[in-house]
Design a protein that fits this description.
Blueprint (H helix, E strand, L loop, with lengths): L7 E4 L8 H9 L6 E4 L8 H7 L6 E4 L2 E4 L3 E4 L9 H9 L8 E3 L4 H13 L4 E3 L2
Parallel strand pairs: 1-2, 2-5, 6-7
Antiparallel strand pairs: 3-4
Length: 131
């Protein structure tokens, strides 16, 4: 890959663990004239989240087996997600024609899962979460 001049690298949903985004990041993350924009959620423990959390200062991220310094500007646009928020999930479950026997929460941060589970239980649902 030959990245010429300043670049804006847009990282959508995915955790920056594979695919073309990894190549773009590896090529451009060390250049201060570049900017990386995260539009999708980045889970804890993934390269995407590492970049977000360690962008300030002398942060590093491991990509393609190499530790790379994060010199590019890093920005996160929140509010763009293919996932429903808590209210959307509660409304969706509430509109089901038949109450599910068990709801398993397997996605999301542990604290958010606990809060959602409590709200579902308050509404009379049987809930199990992965955290």
């Amino acid at each position: 890959m030959d990245m010429r001049g300043p670049a804006v690298i847009i990282a959508g949903s995915g955790m920056c663990t594979g695919g073309r985004i990894v190549d773009h990041l590896a090529e451009g993350i060390g250049r201060p004239e570049n900017d990386i924009v995260f539009v999708g959620y980045q889970a804890a423990g993934t390269p995407g989240r590492t970049i977000q959390e360690h962008a300030k200062g002398n942060g590093v991220v491991r990509l393609e087996g190499k530790e790379l310094k994060i010199r590019a500007g890093v920005h996160t646009l929140s509010g763009y997600s293919a996932h429903a928020d808590q209210r959307g999930l509660l409304d969706w479950v509430g509109r089901m024609p038949e109450k599910p026997g068990l709801i398993k929460l397997v996605h999301g941060e542990p604290d958010a899962q606990k809060v959602l589970a409590a709200k579902l239980i308050e509404r009379g649902y049987c809930v199990r979460n992965s955290s």
